[in-house]
Design goal:
The structure holds three protein chains of three kinds. By secondary structure, chain A is mainly α. In chain A, a hairpin with a 2-residue loop joins β1 and β2. Chain A contains eleven helices and two strands. Chain B folds into two domains: 221 residues, Rossmann fold; 154 residues, Rossmann fold, CATH 3.40.50.2300. Chain B is 39% helix and 20% strand. Chain B is built from 13 helices and 14 strands. In chain B, the strands form two sheets. In chain B, strands 7, 8, 9, 10, 11, 12, 13 and 14 form an eight-stranded mixed sheet that branches. In chain B, strands 2-3-1-4-5-6 form a six-stranded mixed sheet. In chain B, a hairpin with a 2-residue loop joins β13 and β14. In chain C, α3 runs parallel beside α8 and α4 runs parallel beside α6. Helix content of chain C is 70%, strand content 1%. The longest helix of chain C has 27 residues. Chain C has a two-stranded antiparallel ribbon with strand order 1-2. Classes of the chains: A mainly alpha, B alpha/beta, C mainly alpha. Chains in contact: A-B, A-C, B-C. Chains B and C meet through α1, α3, α4, α5 and α7 of B and α2, α3, α6 and α8 of C.
């Protein structure tokens, strides 16, 4: 049981890294980026590609994924720019189309076969925790996720850039009126959000592997996290991710027959009771 | 149906049926859809295997097995020149059923060979029955295909899900694991058949299943909750059935969470068959499975097959290659006695094929419409840096369990 | 999607149904129907089968257009109701009777029922929240299909569905099945078209363009949205019964996210709100997926993805937007 809770944290922090980018992009820019899952999968394949080369390969994959993520975010930001006066639906559809194209291109490049991604040397073993054996890599994942959560929180809460981000979430027009170039803020947030998605892909590789179809599984998980936590809220993404992490692991232990439904039941309950999410503000619509 | 002024719906349909006789060829309405590839002795085969989606690797192996057999036999079944039309089965019946319809209706093939997905095989049963065409299934393992939902037009050169797992059930009951095995398989039809076949044979041998788990199929990427369950159940061994990406993930996590050292892992052969084994890497070492083939089999037919396959494709054959090569083999045998190429004539001829004694998997026969074949106990070993499924024991000839 | 996001429109324009030049529209409809009805006499069986799939998907896309284009509710889970209808129609055909109107009516009823049970949650949300909630419901319905094995056949799907029978005679021929699908599809299309042109349809467009204003005018907008959601579910259920009549099996994949998003693509290609456009879009999607896909090494999805992107940029109002408009643009 204790191992399950611990594992829930590992999955939860991974989901946080993935979902916080999605959440910020939507909260700030009103763009529901359905290509987020495909970016994750891109990162996972990068990880799989370089995994054989030890630490160098792992860190190299992280670096390439970060750069690729920044670039992809910039491109997505440019692509959605002409649509800023159109509805949410058009922007969501555009990113859905991009997601289909990217996922198919990944299949063409990396093949249909599912790939396993080994953890970097030294972390591919297991350690004893609570009297049970636990993969060392996942412990590191928990630590890394916690640090990253703290960093994102500090940046958003304590810095000038963060203040700008928060202000943009709250009232875009007002920020624009103050003379800040909206497009630049948007491109920046989009780039960082996509970077987090591809990075999460590399980090998640040793847990989830890389395979066709993983993109939509991951996208749906991230959407659930973001909706539960509240769009545009860092704290919401963290709490939502940790909740879903626990639901996904503890739920399977405690209620094995209902496990498949719990996720969406949780989502439906939150949406009915508190449509803006646990930490969302009603403004971000 | 005497002359009557009122138009009944039946008459209206008859009327519509009559119109196309006047219309030129290429109509969709009216009698059987031609397909009479008469004249010189020729047979057209529709090879429907996955070229895209999660089963694409299986499709590649299957097509290679088919091509290799034809190449070795001059592209002929007896006197019949073989033309092969390949179509993509895809991943689900959504793509697989139209593919079968396409080769039947558009390409006018005489026989369909292939099909990985059981749902697709079950889904085309009616189409085959209505067009009276034969399908030789070279993978799909649903027992119902040649059992409860049997039609004379579907034959199989592969296996049934329960046949493979029953062999392991009987073996584990005899090898000291009577007091406790945990059984785990994905929550879908094939998983349920595997568990049922295993449990029945294991319990018949006096064994006791101490727990079962059914992770959601295709949606589970983290098996930690189930692995904890296995540890807490006090099981002496685990029996499992996974394939594709799930097989990779499960075997790796079984080791990462420290079960591999304490609770030995047994499974249906697909757990470690084909391309997944390389991805599982060392985590798969020592895993034991049952299957009707491994490229390590020591018989002349297999040695020749493996050598030819490696020479042509620079890869080892899998059970999927053999199953499809054997489809060509039995068609070749059947056409020696078949009176025509329609489903009824071919089915009658297949019934008289007898022992297929030159198959790489060892000699097998049709029992009903599915193989009675030798099951092998296999163990993953490292031979000169390559992981292989080495033969541990011959478990004897076995039929589809009833 | 919400009132704030779209520019306000004079309520009068929004509430007025679009005028159709009756004579010409009817003439075109008749010509199209005659051509479609004659098609199987000249087409090879596989082409007829593909055309049958197009018709089924077209009716499904039309039912979705009722939500997306007419009412402004973008659903990503509509395939769930298609599947509910298909499973119900298939189950009835196997276990009770395959006599013509029965599977159809059962499919429609179950599709509508599924929409009625889930609709009270969804219509309370709007915009992207509606999108995500319907996505979650679609996934859940697929999960039900996957796990309720005694009724749905689980992952193997519901197989062995008998041919539809008309007055005791099975439609044992792809051409007959096609005509059955065409007849029902045309009726379904006509039903939706009439609804859209009625005052009720006008009110739905009003809700799409400016919900607060409609509410202020005294329209019970939530009730309107709930009813249209149930109707769309029912029509999707009819499409489901046609699906099972054509492919003779239903599997969980028919309820999936991809099916829903392809239907949404069909609607967007055609131009949200244009029923004819949705049918054209459906034809394009099915031809790419089923006829072109196999010859592209299974990469039909790639082409569809590119089409998605291009349509969003180049045809903001879909194919229907290419037509010169006489009427003042209001959306």
């Amino acid at each position: 049981m204790l191992v399950s809770i611990l594992n829930g944290f590992a999955i939860g922090f991974l989901l946080f890294i993935l979902a916080v980018g999605l959440s910020l992009v939507f909260g700030m820019m009103d763009v529901l980026n359905l290509a987020h899952g495909a970016l994750f999968l891109g990162g996972a394949y990068l990880g799989a590609q370089f995994a054989g080369d030890g630490w160098g390969g792992f860190l190299g994959a992280l670096g390439i994924a970060a750069v690729a993520g920044l670039a992809a975010g910039g491109v997505l930001s440019l692509m959605t720019e002409p649509l800023r006066r159109r509805s949410h639906l058009d922007q969501a559809l555009l990113t859905l189309g991009v997601a289909l194209v990217v996922a198919e291109l990944l299949i063409i490049v990396f093949g249909d076969d599912p790939l396993a991604v080994p953890a970097p040397p030294g972390l591919d073993g297991s350690v004893a925790v609570f009297g049970a054996t636990y993969p060392a890599y996942r412990l590191v994942l928990i630590g890394f996720g916690a640090v990253l959560a703290l960093v994102v929180h500090l940046v958003v809460d304590r810095t000038r850039v963060g203040a700008l981000v928060r202000a943009t979430v709250a009232d875009r027009e007002m920020v624009a009126a103050l003379g800040v170039d909206n497009r630049l803020v948007k491109a920046g947030v989009f780039a960082v959000g996509s970077l987090l998605a591809t990075t999460a892909g590399v980090l998640g590789g040793p847990v989830y592997g890389a395979r066709p179809g993983l993109d939509s599984t991951i996208l749906i998980l991230a959407l659930v996290v973001v909706v539960i936590g509240g769009l545009g809220s860092v704290r919401g993404a963290l709490v939502g991710a940790l909740i879903i992490g626990q639901v996904d692991t503890l739920g399977r232990v405690l209620l094995p027959d209902l496990a498949s439904f719990i996720l969406f039941a949780a989502l439906a309950v939150v949406l009915v009771v508190r449509p803006q999410g646990l930490f969302g503000t009603a403004v971000a619509r | 149906m005497t002359e009557h002024p009122t138009i009944t719906r039946r008459r209206l349909l008859a009327l519509f049926g009559a119109v196309p006789v006047l219309a030129a060829c290429g109509s969709s309405v009216g009698g059987g859809s031609g397909g009479t590839s008469g004249g010189a002795k020729a047979i057209k085969v529709g090879l429907v295997v996955p070229q895209s989606g999660v089963y694409a690797a299986l499709g590649t192996d299957m097509q290679r097995g088919w091509d290799l057999w034809l190449e070795q036999n001059g592209g002929k079944f007896g006197d019949y020149t073989v033309t092969t039309v390949v179509a993509d089965e895809g991943e689900t019946p959504q793509t697989g059923v139209p593919a079968v319809q396409k080769v039947l209706q558009s390409d006018g093939v005489d026989v369909v060979v292939g099909i990985v997905n059981s749902a697709t095989a079950l889904g085309v049963a009616d189409t085959l029955k209505e067009s009276k065409k034969l399908l030789i299934v070279t993978n799909a393992g649903a027992g119902a295909l040649t059992g409860k939902a049997r039609t004379p037009y579907i034959w199989r050169t592969s296996f049934t899900n329960a046949q493979v797992s029953a062999a392991m059930g009987a073996h584990l009951a005899q090898s000291g694991f009577k007091d406790g095995v945990f059984a785990i398989a994905p929550d879908y039809a094939a998983g349920a058949e595997v568990i049922a076949g295993f449990t029945k044979a294991f319990e018949a041998g006096g064994g006791k299943v101490v727990g079962t788990a059914k992770p959601a199929f295709g949606k589970t990427s983290d098996y930690q909750p189930f692995l904890t369950q296995i540890q807490q159940s006090g099981a002496k061994a685990t029996f499992c059935f996974f394939s594709g990406s799930e097989a990779i993930t499960f075997v790796k996590q079984y080791q990462q969470f420290g079960l591999a050292g304490t609770i030995p892992l047994y499974g249906s052969g697909f757990l470690t068959e084909g391309s997944v084994l390389k991805q599982q890497a060392d985590a798969a070492l020592g895993v034991q499975t049952t299957l009707h083939y491994t490229d390590q089999l020591d018989n002349p037919a297999n040695k020749a097959f493996v050598a030819a396959y490696q020479a042509k494709y620079q890869a080892s054959p899998s059970t999927f290659s053999v199953q499809t090569a054997d489809a060509a083999n039995v068609l070749n045998r059947a056409l020696k006695t078949a009176t025509a190429l329609d489903g009824d004539a071919l089915a009658a001829a297949l019934g008289g094929v007898g022992a297929v004694d030159d198959s790489p998997r060892g000699s097998w026969t049709f029992d009903g419409q599915t193989p009675r074949q030798t099951m092998y106990l296999r163990k993953v070993e490292n031979v000169n840096g390559t992981l292989v499924n080495a033969v541990v024991q011959d478990l004897g000839q076995q039929s589809q369990p009833r | 999607m919400t009132a704030v996001a779209s520019p306000a429109v004079p309520g009068g324009t929004a509430a007025r149904p679009p005028r159709l030049t009756c004579g010409r529209g009817a003439l075109i409809s008749v010509v199209v129907l005659v051509v479609l009805a004659a098609a199987p006499l000249f087409l090879a069986p596989f082409a007829t089968t593909t055309l049958t799939r197009v018709l089924v998907f077209a009716l499904f896309a039309v039912s979705l257009d009722l939500l997306v284009g007419v009412t402004g509710l973008p659903s990503l889970g509509h395939a769930g109701y298609l599947g509910a209808g298909a499973y119900a129609a298939g189950w009835v055909s196997i276990n009770v009777t395959a006599e013509a109107p029965v599977p159809l009516l059962v499919g429609a009823a179950v599709g509508a029922l599924a929409a009625a049970l889930t609709g009270w949650v969804t219509v309370r949300s709007a915009g992207v929240f509606f999108l995500m909630l319907t996505l979650a419901i679609g996934e859940t319905l697929q999960q039900v299909a996957d796990s309720w094995e005694s009724v749905t056949g689980g992952a193997n799907g519901l197989t062995g569905v008998p041919l539809v029978r008309l007055a005791g005679t099975p439609l044992a021929n792809v051409g007959y099945t096609y005509w059955y699908v065409l007849a029902v599809g045309a009726l379904g299309f006509a039903l939706v078209a009439v609804l859209v042109r009625s005052p009720w349809g006008a009110a739905l467009r009003g809700i799409r363009d400016n919900e607060p204003r409609m509410r202020a005018l005294g329209y019970p907008t939530s009730l309107y949205k709930y009813v249209v959601f149930v109707v769309a579910g029912g029509v999707a259920g009819i499409a489901g019964s046609l699906l099972v009549a054509q492919q003779r099996l239903v599997t969980p994949a028919d309820l999936g996210f991809l099916t829903s998003s392809f239907a949404l693509l069909a609607v967007v290609i055609g131009g949200a709100g244009s029923l004819w456009g949705a049918c054209l879009g459906a034809a394009l999607v099915i031809v790419i997926r089923d006829a072109l896909g196999p010859s592209l090494d299974g990469h039909g999805t790639l082409v569809l993805g590119v089409v998605f992107v291009l349509v969003v940029y180049l045809l903001p109002r879909g194919a229907a937007g290419l037509r010169p408009r006489r009427r003042r643009e209001n959306a």
